[in-house]
Amino acid sequence: MQIKSSSNKKSVLLIIEIRNKKMENYRSFSPVNLAVEALGDKWSLLILRDMIFEGKRYFRELLVSEEKIVSSTLASRLATLEKDGLIMKQADPASKQKTRYSLTQKSVDLLPFIVESIAWSLRYEPVDTRRYQPAVEIALDNDAYEQLRRQLIAGHLAG
C-alpha cells in the first residue's frame, strides 16, 4: 500500500501507534483474556451483582456486603470499573454531596453472563437458594430476566 500525502501517512502512523499502545495494556486479545482482565479480580462482579440484584448505588451501600469488602478496596475497584466504562458516577440529584453510581450499557450487557454464572453455580455449587431467591428466579425464568433487564435500563441508562 502506498500512501500519497504526508498527512494521510501521519494519520496511518498515529492509528498504528494507538493500536500498539492498546496492545501493551493486555496480555492478549483473546476474548476470554479480555473478559478476565476486565472482570477477573475478586470484587468487580460482586460489586456489579450488588448494583444489579440489590439496587445498591452508593459507596456506603456497596460497602455493606456479605463478603466484607474494605473501603480502600471498594474505592479502588469503583474507580477501575468507572475507568473501564462499566459504571459511571455522578452527584446524587437529591444531595450534591453524595455520589451515586450507575450501570452503563456495557455492564447491563453483562447480564446474560452473570445469569449464566448463576445457572452454573446452581448446577455445580451449594447455592443458598432461599437467600438468593431473586437471582435464582432470574436465572430460571426468562420473563423475570427480561423484566430485570428493562428495570436496569430504565433505572440506570434512561436520562
From TrEMBL:
Molecular function terms, GO-annotated: DNA binding
SUPFAM superfamilies tied to this protein: Winged helix' DNA-binding domain (SSF46785)
Keyword set, alphabetical order: DNA-binding, Transcription, Transcription regulation
Coiled coil regions in record: none
Keyword DNA-binding in annotation: yes
Domain HTH hxlR-type, chain residue ranges per copy: 30-129
PROSITE patterns linked to this entry: HTH_HXLR
Protein name: Transcriptional regulator
